[in-house]
Amino acid sequence: MILITTILVLLISTLYLCFRVLLKITYEYRRPSSKFLREFKIDHKENDSTLVIKSRFYLGCLRYQLLKASSHVTEYSNDDTFSSCLKVDRKEWDTVIANAGRGSEEKLYTDNKLYGFFHPYCNAGGGGEKVLWKAIETVLRNDKKNVAIVYTGDVDASRSQILDNVNTTFGYKLEESRVVFIYLRTRFLVSDRTWPVFTLLGQAFGSFILTVEAYWRCPVDFWCDTMGYPFGYPAIRFMADMPIIAYTHFPVISTDMLDKLKFSETSNSFRTKAKYIYWSIFMFFYEWVGSLVFVSITNSTWTNNHIKSIWRDSHSEIIYPPCSTERLVIKEDKWNRKNQAVVLAQFRNEKRHQLIIQEYSKYLAELSTTENYEPPKIIFVGSTRSQNDKDYVENLKRLAYINYRIPMHLMEFVTDAPYEDIKKYLHESSYGINAMWNEHFGIAVVEYAAAGLIPLVHASAGPLLDIVVPWDVKNNKEAKVNNEQTRTGFFFISEEDPDYVKTANDKNAYNSLKDIFKQVSELCDTEKFEISKRGKLCVSIKFSDAKFDEDWDKYVMDMLDLEII
């Protein structure tokens, strides 16, 4: 009891101190008074044109004013040093002083517009980061006065390293002179390793502290969360009163999670009931923070449906992730591909590689010697992040080669392949498999279709609702009916699915992956070519970088322009 009381006192004290700092910053950073600016200590003159200004708590207020006025904003990054000093151009300091306390119409300069992108893992190189950098590219292109402030915890990477990685990984060449990095110290608070118990609650608290730190180090005009840390929104909404743009990849907690507990076999146990209450309370606060969002964007129909049911007070739109489909499409006049299927996925349990191996083994066992076709070779391609992932791959090999006795020439495992090798597999193979249940989007499935593969995917979430959809080639739009003339891929379900009973009882129930292997093996080359062509057209239109630009301008930039007016 004493321990719990101590923890609560520490949490409340921390929140109180955060709000005190926020209130002071909020009061001064938009229209600082001359008196407030005189509190900054000019530590020494570095040279005739540069001053070194020192402040322990309110350097962020000054950084905001300088970024608004500066024509070379990159000078005001904190460059991962966390110093209490800031090198300032003398002329820009004089301009800030001269404008102290003036209204917007009285200022001696035209404001830059500062867009804060809250993405503590901006250098990770995944699909979420691709959304971040494409959004930044679109914002910078929209107006020469727009400046991107990137809040990151990647203190081990310099500004140039991060931007080089963006160019190498995603092929985006940003206007670097308008990209400012603000490094954060408290990113560890949002790591699940920091909170081995009460993880959701711990990460929510950590995201609030991290948001406060970001705002303290550099206030902005617009707050854009592209990583999914909604529990920092109250600090931004109530203290800074700025528009919040939320790009949600998947909900922090969903009704599916609650239902899974409610209808589980252990639903009557004390532990399960306590967890259900804990998650329900968490859901209540998740609903509340959603009401603070000005522009809500999601990455897929599945995510959008969940967010709409949770954030009922916030209108949500879908902007599909930029998948660079333009770079994967190749011109083909006929079907001339190898009889092999690619599984492009990180080597993790939730990708269900075991299910693919099991179903393929069943398919091989049922092959008749009279069949006039060869079984497709399966190639697993994915990255390994740790030794656990490498051990996982070895277990898959034992399952395939020893337990199920699948011939090695029919199954191959490729780890950590360079991107050019991955593109080669995509362009020479016939099929692409995705077995994950309820994958919120599925960028690998988009890459399958763009590269000309025939997708064999689980009938759920993003692949079912957004990607492998029927396509009308004549009118170049999504068709209403899925048939042999509109099909862009094949779907399967499994007895291992959490919702298998409900799905299997559906009148339009899908086959197993074993049956899908048999079905696609019987396709002729003309049928394969037509399915591939429809899939390419579909994803080229729905998931291109150009489509992302168009939708971001429509649903985000235009809405923010209305807010400013």
TrEMBL record:
This is GDP-Man:Man(3)GlcNAc(2)-PP-Dol alpha-1,2-mannosyltransferase. Residues 334-472 form the Glycosyl transferase family domain. It is an enzyme of class 2 (transferase). It catalyses: an alpha-D-Man-(1->3)-[alpha-D-Man-(1->6)]-beta-D-Man-(1->4)-beta-D-GlcNAc-(1->4)-alpha-D-GlcNAc-diphospho-di-trans,poly-cis-dolichol + 2 GDP-alpha-D-mannose = an alpha-D-Man-(1->2)-alpha-D-Man-(1->2)-alpha-D-Man-(1->3)-[alpha-D-Man-(1->6)]-beta-D-Man-(1->4)-beta-D-GlcNAc-(1->4)-alpha-D-GlcNAc-diphospho-di-trans,poly-cis-dolichol + 2 GDP + 2 H(+). Residues 113-311 form the ALG11 mannosyltransferase N-terminal domain. Its EC number is 2.4.1.131. The keyword GTP-binding does not apply.
